[in-house]
Amino acid sequence: MPGKIIFAAVLFLSSQVSPARSREAEPLTASQFAGIIQRISEEGGYFWNDNYVSNEASYLHPLTKLRELGIRGGIYIGVGPNQNFTYIAKLHPRYAFVLDIRRQNLLEHLLFKALFHLARDRRDFLSLLLSRPITRGSLTGDSYTVQDMVRYFQMANPDASLSRRTLERVHLYLTTNCRVSLSDLDWQTMGKIHQAFFYRGLSIKYDYIPVPTFGEFLTERDLEGKMQDFLNSTQDFRYLKRLQEENRIIPIVGDFAGSHALRELGRYLRERDERVTVFYTSNVEQYLVRNNAWARFLKNVGELPLDDRAVFIRAYWSTYISHPEGVAGYRFTQILQWIKPFLREFNPNLVYSYWDIVTTNTIKLH
Fold first, then answer.
1. What share of the chain is helix, strand, coil (3-state, %, to 5)?
2. Beta partners for 227?
3. Which of 92, 165, 198, 308 is deepest in the core (most CB within 10 A)?
């Protein structure tokens, strides 16, 4: 079991937080956006189940500590579907990269990107995603909460004509405005994703394990009892819409332990003098350990240009053993760790358990 870095050292590191890059983050052109995806992406890999929405009910739990530590700006790297948007909205990175082994995840993020462009506001975004029209006089103004939207869309019926028109508009936008190269199979997969939201609405979830539905996920609260999903805030939604319009949220197909994507991302970021501030890994490392591939991931992280304040956000699924920092009532535990001390602590030439990884030098959230 790796030794523990003393608390004073962690305090020292957290006090040495470097300022965010002072220069303004520039929008990327459509050609640059498409070129980055092509340059960094790998061939898609296999995952045994569809994962259209996050299954981490505890996703909001790190937000208070991240704010206290002043973690903001820089480069955000994440994985998976919609939970990334709330992290991005709260952390205000210069650019965000969502890297996932499933090409399906890239296609879902391109769908999200198009819906951010087409939607005028939060309610419109959910309406287009779920293919449920908004009746006159419903959810007016800007003061409605995400709970108000959940109540409304739980009762609303899907509209096939709205779904068909939305997909046509998505196709036109991605083809003409984003210049991404998508195959017929890609378009079919994107249509399948949109149809999943059409049929299941807010009840859509990651199947086979007891996790929240999409509607329950949206109304989760942070450790201070506040609803913090980006759809609860007009300001957060507008910020994300701007980043999407400026092509600063970039989906990538890549294996955390692969030989190309993370390393090429590191080269790209160094070319632009950017540094990674947050790397959200979810529980991907659980599978890497199981497949004896985690050491390669550790080496890949070492190839990234890291800010001194860079942190991992990890998620631990409590199957048999509860995490010591787990919150009552939650099967997932979000874990925060400083990246640079973590890399010094773990030797890629040695073998570690997943428990070692998620319990060493954690930053207490509560």
1. 45, 10, 40
2. 221
3. 198
d(CA 98, CA 365) in angstroms, rounded, equals 24
How much is the pLDDT for 4? 44
Q: How far is CA 248 from the centre of its chain?
A: 14
DSSP string, 250-270: EEEE--TTSSSHHHHHHHHHH
Q: Which residues of the chain have pLDDT under 70?
A: 1-22, 46-48, 208
Q: Is the CB of residue 293 less than 8 Å from the CB of residue 125?
A: no
What is the reported pLDDT for 48?
60
Widest distance between CA atoms in the chain: 62
Q: Are 275 and 306 in contact (CB under 8 A)?
A: yes
Using CA atoms, how far apart are residues 292 and 282, in angstroms rounded to an integer? Answer: 18
Question: Half-sphere exposure (CA, 13 Å, Cβ side) for 60?
Answer: 17
Who's near 282: CB < 8 A, 6+ residues apart?
A: 56, 79, 80, 83, 314, 315
Tokens standing for residue 182: 């998508």
CA dihedral 363, 301, 95, 104 (to 10 degrees): -100
Residue 48 CB coordination number (10 Å): 7
In angstroms, the CA 40 to CA 42 distance is 7
The CA distance from 65 to 43, in Å, is 36
- Overall pTM > 0.90: yes
What are the CA-CA distances from residue 169 to residues 118, 175, 177, 193 (Å)? 8, 10, 11, 15
Beta pairing class for 95-100 and 249-253: parallel
pLDDT in tens, 225-257: 999 999 999 999 999 999 999 999 999 999 999
Q: pLDDT value at position 233? A: 97
Q: How far is CA 133 from CA 103, 112, 176, 249, 281, in A?
A: 29, 18, 26, 27, 35
Distance CA 266, CA 40 (A): 10
Strands of the 95-100 sheet, one edge to the other:
249-253, 95-100, 75-78, 276-282, 306-317, 332-338
